[in-house]
Amino acid sequence: MSRFWSPVVHSLIPYVAGEQPAMSDIAKLNTNENPYGPSPLALEAISKAVSDTLRLYPDPTARGLRAAIAASYGLDKDEVFIGNGSDEVLAHTFQALLNHEEPLLFPDITYSFYPTYCRLYGIEFREVALDARMRVRVADYRQSCGAIILPNPNAPTGIGLPIADIETLVREHPEQVVVIDEAYVDFGGESAIPLVRKYRNLLVVQTFSKSRGLAGLRVGFAVGQRPLIEALERVKDSFNSYPIDRLTLAGAIAAWEDRDWFERHRALVIATRGRLGIALQALGFVVLPSSANFVFARHASKPGADLAAELRSRGVLIRRFSGARISDFLRISIGTDAECDRLLAALDDIL
Ligand code: PMP
């Protein structure tokens, strides 16, 4: 790598996203996308936006989408922040924590972008161990810190925290920002957005990539009281003042407003997850209780690396992570019933 750049760049350990192979005859259960895709109304809105004026810059305030999201919670549009995927919303959140005097806390097994962002932006962090059952224990966060970030449900375990625990955490850290990353919350978790009115230190981040089926568009948002959102706007405007493009804005508004599509398809994912969990247990897997659109499971005797390789050779992609307690686990996204049947047939063949 060129010596002209900062030494920090040389020492980065970037987050590596799951592979996106050409989609011929593959059951793609490796990146937690929505197997049903977005609402047809979103596709219609995007087509219409294509034929409108792409010549013009998009609305730098993403007003229509902020208003639609805010209205669902009885909030003001200025209490919503929009970004290019929740990854970007999180990036701006981390940037806003730059040079904090105390470390940022997050679980030792969690979304691996968190330590990556900390290294990139030079933010000190401390990892808090999950308990023996791989759960987040809120009491373990009673320590001095600059801020806290937790996914709920956690990733890649899929285990959700009750909203009462989130509220305890927020109440016990009145001088710290508590960020709750709710990328997977619509599949059985409890959202903390209703608590935003009550707590000035709570920021809740969500995405259109999972329950809204729009991972390809890249759109996510944060909800919080005005001073928190204003800071994120300031960071964003110092970086790129257009949060999302015209097509994304149109598609996301339509997807948000199609409540019926959203409810029907998240229910399908939840039902398939239940069936898959039972079938995996019957094949000898230990399956963690999931509130997400994936399951995290380990076979009682067969190593995770072998299983992943053998599944791959049968055209089934799942995700594995390295790390002391999780290297034998497979993270399996919930696909259609047919995709899950294909996975189960392949496992039956392997085991
Ligand atoms: N948070 C968590 C916990 C995730 O797993 C993901 C998806 N990889 C994201 C945020 C980012 O999702 P997106 O950028 O697609 O909104």
TrEMBL record:
<dbReference type="InterPro" id="IPR015424">
    <property type="entry name" value="PyrdxlP-dep_Trfase"/>
</dbReference>
<dbReference type="InterPro" id="IPR004839">
    <property type="entry name" value="Aminotransferase_I/II_large"/>
</dbReference>
<dbReference type="GO" id="GO:0030170">
    <property type="term" value="F:pyridoxal phosphate binding"/>
</dbReference>
<dbReference type="Pfam" id="PF00155">
    <property type="entry name" value="Aminotran_1_2"/>
</dbReference>
<dbReference type="GO" id="GO:0004400">
    <property type="term" value="F:histidinol-phosphate transaminase activity"/>
</dbReference>
<comment type="subunit">
    <text>Homodimer.</text>
</comment>
<dbReference type="InterPro" id="IPR005861">
    <property type="entry name" value="HisP_aminotrans"/>
</dbReference>
<comment type="similarity">
    <text>Belongs to the class-II pyridoxal-phosphate-dependent aminotransferase family. Histidinol-phosphate aminotransferase subfamily.</text>
</comment>
<keyword id="KW-0368">Histidine biosynthesis</keyword>
<keyword id="KW-0032">Aminotransferase</keyword>
<keyword id="KW-0663">Pyridoxal phosphate</keyword>
<dbReference type="InterPro" id="IPR015421">
    <property type="entry name" value="PyrdxlP-dep_Trfase_major"/>
</dbReference>
<feature type="domain" description="Aminotransferase class I/classII large">
    <location>
        <begin position="25"/>
        <end position="347"/>
    </location>
</feature>
<keyword id="KW-0028">Amino-acid biosynthesis</keyword>
<protein>
    <recommendedName>
        <fullName>Histidinol-phosphate aminotransferase</fullName>
        <ecNumber>2.6.1.9</ecNumber>
    </recommendedName>
</protein>
<dbReference type="InterPro" id="IPR050106">
    <property type="entry name" value="HistidinolP_aminotransfase"/>
</dbReference>
<keyword id="KW-0808">Transferase</keyword>
<dbReference type="InterPro" id="IPR015422">
    <property type="entry name" value="PyrdxlP-dep_Trfase_small"/>
</dbReference>
<dbReference type="GO" id="GO:0000105">
    <property type="term" value="P:L-histidine biosynthetic process"/>
</dbReference>
<feature type="modified residue" description="N6-(pyridoxal phosphate)lysine">
    <location>
        <position position="210"/>
    </location>
</feature>
<dbReference type="InterPro" id="IPR001917">
    <property type="entry name" value="Aminotrans_II_pyridoxalP_BS"/>
</dbReference>
<comment type="pathway">
    <text>Amino-acid biosynthesis; L-histidine biosynthesis; L-histidine from 5-phospho-alpha-D-ribose 1-diphosphate: step 7/9.</text>
</comment>
